[in-house]
Amino acid sequence: MQKKKNAVAVFLGHTRDDQAETVLLGLARGSGTRSLSGMAHHNGLYIRPLLEITRIQNEKYCEEMKLQFWNDPHNQNPEFSRVRVRNVALPILEESIGPGIAEALARSAHLLRDDADALDHWAKREEVHLDLADLECSHLEEMPRAIRTRIIRAAVYAAGAPAGTVTMEHVSAVEALICAWSGQGALNLPGGVKVERISGRLSLLQHRP
């Protein structure tokens, strides 16, 4: 669609309530800082100008301006975890803890995005000076864990792992070769990536069948 229309921006209608739901789902999955930072206001062509207002405020404005909006029927289907968060979990939290839960979750997402951006920037500055296929374990061990795990993930992807396939379990296993070395053997990761500790260095190679 964006190519056909030569669009320079695509505006999405996510609101603060959607942001809160995203953060709560991330917490339930045990996600990291990046996932808990929720949806970005700007992400390439995609822009979310309504993240600071609630769903009710958005609907009331449309009604006042005589704008017709469409309600996706999937938004009421309890088979989806996001719908259960919206219609069950968040109302229970509001009732048992107090009002303002959605606002607080969205505020946390904003703060965590700042932290995630800063950590990503720090890790990328470190990566510039490293050979991601041949890493010195002692140097990685001295780094803060948040930076080390980002570099590990980047190294595995650089070695050939398909996008989105590297989990925290994979990263933790590689980290054990660095910080909890006891002679364990090589790791086989997605995309045929082999990670092995050799003479105090971490070797990452892709083995194709």
Outline the fold blueprint.
Elements: E1 10-11, H1 16-29, H2 33-36, E2 42-43, E3 46-47, H3 55-64, H4 81-96, H5 101-127, E4 134-136, H6 137-142, H7 145-158, H8 168-179, E5 187-189, E6 193-198, E7 201-206
Parallel strand pairs: 1-3
Antiparallel strand pairs: 2-3, 4-7, 5-6, 6-7
Helix pairs in contact: 1-4, 1-5, 5-7, 7-8
What does this structure look like?
This protein has helices at 16-29, 33-36, 55-64, 81-96, 101-127, 137-142, 145-158, 168-179, and strands at 10-11, 42-43, 46-47, 134-136, 187-189, 193-198, 201-206. α1 (16-29) crosses α5 (101-127). It starts with 9 loop residues before the first strand and ends with a strand. It has two domains: 10-119, 3-Layer(aba) Sandwich (Rossmann fold); 130-206, Uridine Diphospho-n-acetylenolpyruvylglucosamine Reductase, domain 3 (2-Layer Sandwich), CATH 3.30.465. It has a four-stranded antiparallel beta sheet with strand order 4-7-6-5. With 209 residues, it is an alpha+beta fold. The radius of gyration is 22 Å and the shape is elongated.
Describe the structure concisely.
The chain is of the alpha+beta class and 209 residues long. Helix content is 49%, strand content 11%. It has 8 helices and 7 strands; from the N terminus they run E-H-H-E-E-H-H-H-E-H-H-H-E-E-E.
Structural features:
Rossmann fold; 11% strand; single chain; alpha+beta; three-stranded mixed β-sheet; 49% helix; 2 domains; 8 helices; 209 residues; four-stranded antiparallel β-sheet; elongated; Uridine Diphospho-n-acetylenolpyruvylglucosamine Reductase, domain 3
Task: Summarize the main sheet.
Answer: 4 strands, antiparallel
* Strand residues, percent: 5-15%
CATH class value of the largest domain: Alpha Beta
Share of helix, binned? 40-55%
Order of helices and strands: EHHEEHHHEHHHEEE
Architecture of the largest domain in CATH? 3-Layer(aba) Sandwich
Q: Provide the domain count.
A: 2
CATH superfamily of the largest domain: HUPs
Q: Would you tell me the structural class of the helices and strands?
A: alpha+beta
What low-confidence regions span 5 or more consecutive residues with pLDDT below 50? none
Mean pLDDT: 93
Side-by-side strand order of the widest sheet: 4-7-6-5
Please report the total strand number as a whole number: 7
C-alpha Rg (nearest Å): 22 Å
Number of helices: 8
Give the N-to-C terminal Cα separation: 38 Å
The 3D shape can be described as: elongated
CATH fold call of the largest domain: Rossmann fold
